[in-house]
Write a structure and sequence with these properties.
The complex is a heterotrimer.
Chain A (H helix, E strand, L loop, with lengths): L2 H7 L3 H16 L1 H9 L6 E5 L2 E4 L4 E4 L2 H4 L8 H11 L12 H13 L6 E5 L2 H16 L3 E5 L17 H4 L9 E4 L4 H7 L4 E6 L2 E2 L5 E2 L2 H13 L3 E5 L14 H4 L5 E4 L11 E5 L1 H9 L12 H16 L2 H22 L6 E5 L2 E5 L5 H11 L2 E2 L2 E2 L2 E7 L7 H29 L1
Parallel strand pairs in A: 3-15, 5-6, 5-7, 7-10, 10-11
Antiparallel strand pairs in A: 1-2, 2-3, 4-12, 8-9, 11-12, 13-14, 14-17, 16-17
Helix pairs in contact in A: 2-3, 5-13, 6-13, 7-12, 14-16, 15-16
Chain B lengths: L4 H15 L2 H9 L6 E5 L2 E4 L4 E4 L2 H4 L8 H11 L12 H13 L4 E7 L2 H16 L3 E5 L8 H5 L17 E4 L4 H7 L4 E6 L2 E2 L5 E2 L2 H14 L2 E5 L23 E4 L11 E6 L4 H5 L12 H16 L2 H22 L4 E7 L2 E6 L4 H11 L2 E2 L1 E3 L2 E7 L7 H21 L6
Parallel strand pairs in B: 3-15, 5-6, 5-7, 7-10, 10-11
Antiparallel strand pairs in B: 1-2, 2-3, 4-12, 8-9, 11-12, 13-14, 14-17, 16-17
Chain C lengths: L3 H16 L2 H6 L5 E7 L5 E7 L2 E6 L8 E5 L1 H9 L4 H6 L3 E4 L2 H14 L4
Parallel strand pairs in C: 1-4
Antiparallel strand pairs in C: 1-2, 2-3, 4-5
Helix pairs in contact in C: 1-3
Classes of the chains: A alpha/beta, B alpha/beta, C alpha+beta.
């Protein structure tokens, strides 16, 4: 019997749980496991479908984490799974030196659906890696070194992406990092203006800061940035790793403001939740750098035949089912529900914000985020706080979520807030 | 997607030029390597127009189990009935299972695993772990080394051409000649966190480290409290005739990185495997390193199927035997073309042909493509042709490659331009 | 066979084409090299000096220390500068010999690819 048969035939949830916990302790990270358990988030995923995931024990949850936006097309999407299976009858990854036909087809499709004059694609596996490519292209193309990025931005943890991440805890143990990155306040055009020097190559930002606490950039800020960059011959890079592929109610978040960046970074949902792929999409002018240096950025696993086919099937699914529109509609329904909770639980909910199905709820203090996560799980919803800001719980469900499921999540939030209110008043009365 | 193979090929080249990279398409076309892969099986790949090639590139050792290995394809398909990527933030049974399996086959006391997607990412984490755990900053790397293109790995590459347009690099990296123990010793300071090296330099031109060098380094590292990182991305999973190349010397590193063939040529996955003690850093910093796609549920299933295939079929031993068969052919070619082929360096099926000058690598690629073999020169050393076929290559296929080499070398001799410079 | 004058004429045209192409100049701005061309049938030698992507001089002799040496029949060299042939194809067939790094060879190919994309 093969390894996969072994794994799939084991149906005893207790055995699975015990074995997994032992292996985490012995071979992965004992402390991570402990944190999951403490947070009540020690879910071991079994079945997955649509907006939902089932623990191996059979408990069902609405997944509002979705790996920070991997599963726009839904968990274990049937159509894309079938496409990948079909592809496996013919393809493997393909050799990296070969001309990959599927890569050309995907690049062409991306040129079609990305805004403005974005045209050429360079493929990699993960979002951080694609951010690295963007930074390298900016430096290589402009011949300048400085990258202006945002406080509380998150762009990944590999060497050229890590310095762009605007939070010290990720960086400090690994210093000295690659130099040349400046951080400024998000949504503040004057801060960027002041940071520009003759050596500035690019401005890099997320159109909605994800890990930074679901903070959308203002349209006027983005159009101001576009002008500032054009005037100073600086490249504008949008990290649309979390916001891309329909998440915010448009295919790409940039469309809300109409601002076209020079480089756009895509990952996460491009994978269809099934196969790692990411890319930087850029203008023809920038591609000239890669004509002079065609093999300077290479990569074994980036944009493999299989990955490109999955991404093509994913885009087809998003377009066919009009997922951006659906995200806008469901996002509105969420907003209405959550806003009414803000009124009812004014002392616990400071703010509700977001774009499309990229939503955040802000609490008055840091401890509430983790407590909410644990209560939500009890109420059938997986949702966690943003990395750079634990006061904010993120809601990023699959874009295929139904109205009933939206209502279920809002209700779970209501139940959880109610319980926190009860806990707080109990504490107060004890103190009093 | 209809049309004749020729039409599809023409359109594919046009799309690639228009939306991916025109110069890359041009260089490959010139080199006779504008292959659009159709059928793939075992050691072979067929261009969609039907021409067969023995693949000696295999993305620098990503396809050890063979192209489209049916056992692994079927494992992935079955996994697709149940799983998707999974959520990197949650516990995953598949991740736990593969971690255990890797600890089982990794040498010595290497035990804990951090997953990533690509090799560069695995090396980035190895370097971060070394700095974070040791609380020191300096990393010693070797000249002509290749470790990947993400920031920390890129800084560790021993070749400026990959780095210069992207300056400034991550500071704190020093370079010493490979296989030179004295140089390594001389470079070590109180602020040295780790030394990183490939047990066989791949892109550097297929240079195996000597056992004495690795043993000497181990001793020095122990004395000076410096971590040793082995990058086994190209050498791992049977490539050199052992499951891992470091087994030849018996030296166990503190951190080992693997990628490429762990994905079975089907699914991207990489891993950084390290000793228990080092995990302390991750107890205090559990979420300091994250990877959305790293160690996904599907990737881990593929990784397990790959390891099972390698172990059950004794693939490392087969690689050693096929390497010997290649060597017999090389010995003949060395005698026949002494002015063209200077040396063959080899460990198992990780093989490098040292030609007399830089132009021969690309010219041989062109000739070999005409003769049904895909092969290219090493990235950091164009005078060296790398041959890294799949490990499941069969004796008649080995003979086919040797014959193609013979024909190609004869053609190059005919053309001239083979003098050393 | 091409005479030294004919090759110099082709080189002058190549220089003109190269230097007047803004896109090419930008792409190649990190490229500063001395290139020697040797016509092995006539024995004529030429020096091309490139500074930050601009061809600053062509000489009909071997001057300075070369970073790259390119050898071929005089006719082949001439055709290469007129854009009538694809240099990499000639190189891989052994009709042009290049001593230098792979990067430099690909740069020369990139120049011709930009000026004469159809070749």
């Amino acid at each position: 019997m093969s390894v996969i048969d072994d794994i799939l035939s084991e149906k005893d949830p207790e055995k699975i749980r015990k074995e997994t916990e032992t292996n985490y302790r012995e071979y992965l990270n004992p402390f991570v496991l402990r944190m999951f358990k403490n947070a009540g988030l020690d879910i071991i995923e079994g079945r997955r479908e649509g907006a939902s995931v089932w623990d191996v024990t059979g408990d069902k949850y609405i997944d509002c984490v979705t790996g920070a936006g991997i599963f726009n097309v839904g968990r274990h999407n049937r159509e894309i799974t079938d496409a990948l299976k079909k592809a496996l009858d013919v393809y493997d990854m393909g050799g990296w030196i070969s001309i990959i036909r599927e890569r050309g087809l995907l690049a062409k499709k991306l040129a079609e659906i990305t805004p403005g004059n974005l045209k050429y694609s360079l493929f990699c596996c993960g979002g951080g890696e694609a951010v690295e490519v963007a930074v390298k292209l900016a430096r290589g193309h402009t011949g300048k070194t400085e990258i202006i990025c945002m406080e509380n931005g998150y762009h990944g943890v590999t060497g050229f992406a890590l310095p762009a991440t605007g939070r010290e805890v990720y960086k400090k143990p690994f210093a000295p990092l690659a130099p040349g990155y400046t951080h400024v306040t998000f949504n503040d055009i004057n801060a960027v203006k002041a940071a520009i020097t003759k050596d500035t190559a690019a401005v890099l930002l997320e159109p909605v800061q994800g890990e930074g606490g679901i903070r959308p950039a203002d349209d006027s800020y983005l159009s101001g940035l576009r002008k500032l960059c054009t005037d100073n011959e600086i490249l504008l890079i949008f990290d649309e790793v979390q916001t891309g592929f329909g998440r915010t109610g448009k295919m790409f978040c940039a469309e809300h403001s109409g601002v076209v960046p020079d480089i756009m970074v895509l990952a996460k949902s491009m994978s269809g939740g099934l196969y790692p792929i990411s890319c930087a999409v850029f203008t023809e002018e920038i591609s000239d750098f890669l004509i002079a240096h065609p093999f300077i950025i290479i990569n074994s696993f980036g944009g493999t035949s299989l990955a490109c086919l999955v991404a093509l099937a994913t885009i087809e699914f998003i377009e066919k089912n009009n997922l951006p529109e659906r995200a806008a509609k469901m996002g509105k329904r969420f907003m209405e529900g959550l806003s009414s909770l803000k009124i009812t639980y004014g002392e616990l909910v400071v703010d509700v914000r977001g774009k499309g199905l990229m939503l955040g709820i802000e609490f008055p203090e840091e401890s509430i985020g983790p407590r909410m996560a644990s209560l939500l799980k009890k109420n059938g919803v997986i949702s966690i706080y943003t990395f750079n800001n634990p006061r904010i719980i993120r809601i990023m469900p699959s874009l295929v979520i139904t109205e009933e499921e939206v209502d279920f999540v809002v209700e779970a939030f209501e139940k959880s807030l109610k319980e926190i209110r009860a806990q707080e008043s109990e504490r107060k009365s004890k103190k009093g | 997607m209809t049309g004749s193979a020729e039409e599809i090929k023409k359109q594919a080249l046009a799309d690639f030029s228009k939306y991916v990279n025109p110069q890359k398409a041009r260089v490959l076309k010139n080199a006779g390597l504008d292959i659009i892969e159709g059928k793939r099986n075992g050691a072979c790949v067929w261009d969609i127009t039907g021409k067969r090639y023995i693949d000696c590139i295999t993305s620098a050792g990503s396809f050890n189990v063979g192209r489209r290995n049916p056992e692994i394809v079927s494992a992935l398909k079955k996994a697709l009935d149940e799983y998707d990527l999974g959520v990197f933030l949650l516990c995953s049974k598949q991740k736990a299972d593969l971690a255990k399996k890797l600890a089982g086959i990794a040498p010595g006391d290497l035990q804990y695993v951090m997953f990533g997607v690509g090799g560069g990412e695995a090396n980035d984490f190895a370097i971060k772990l070394a700095r974070g755990f040791m609380m020191k900053t300096e990393i010693i790397s070797t000249l002509k080394a290749y470790h990947g293109h993400t920031g920390f790995s890129l800084a560790a590459i021993g070749r400026d051409a990959y780095k210069k347009p992207f300056y400034p690099m991550v500071p704190g990296f020093k370079f010493v000649p490979f296989n030179d123990l004295k140089a390594a010793k001389g470079a070590m300071t109180d602020d040295t966190a780790a030394i990183i090296l490939e047990p066989v330099q791949g892109e550097g031109g297929i240079h195996p480290a000597t056992d004495e060098y690795l043993q000497g380094l181990r001793k020095l590292c122990d004395e000076r409290e410096i971590l040793m990182i082995f990058d086994e991305i190209q050498t791992g999973f049977g490539r050199t005739g052992k499951m891992f190349a470091c087994e030849y010397s018996g030296v166990v590193p503190d951190i080992m990185t693997v990628a490429k063939s762990l994905g079975g040529n089907l699914f991207p996955i990489s891993a950084t495997i390290y000793r228990e003690e080092l995990n302390d850093f991750l107890v205090t910093h559990p979420f300091v390193h994250l990877s959305t796609f790293g160690g996904s549920d599907l990737g881990c299933i593929v990784g397990m199927a790959v390891i099972d295939f390698l172990v059950n079929n004794r693939i490392p031993e087969h690689a050693a035997a096929m390497g010997e068969r290649f060597q017999k052919g090389f010995d003949v070619l060395l005698k026949k073309y002494p002015n063209l082929l200077l040396e063959v360096r080899r460990k198992g099926l990780m093989m490098g042909l040292q030609y007399t000058n830089d132009s021969i690598g690309p010219r041989m690629s062109y000739q070999l493509a005409q003769n049904g073999v895909m092969a290219i020169y090493t990235g950091n050393e164009p005078s060296v042709m790398r041959l890294m076929p799949v490990l499941v290559i069969q004796p008649d296929e080995v003979d086919f490659v040797i014959d193609a080499l013979d024909k190609s070398m004869a053609a190059i001799i005919q053309q001239g331009g083979i003098e050393k410079y | 066979m091409a005479t030294s004058d004919e090759i110099m004429e082709a080189l002058a045209d190549f220089k003109e084409q190269c230097n007047s192409n803004k896109r090419l100049r930008r792409m190649q701005r990190d490229w500063t090299k001395v290139l020697h061309y040797v016509a092995f049938d006539t024995g004529d030698k030429f020096t091309m000096t490139v500074k930050e992507g601009e061809i600053i001089s062509n000489e009909s002799s071997a001057a300075g220390t070369p970073d790259v040496i390119i050898e071929g029949e005089s006719e082949t060299l001439c055709n290469m500068f007129w854009g009538d042939i694809n240099p990499t194809q000639m190189y891989l067939k052994g009709e042009i010999k290049v001593k230098g790094t792979q990067e430099d060879i690909m740069r020369i190919d990139a120049i011709t690819a930009i000026i004469w994309p159809e070749v």
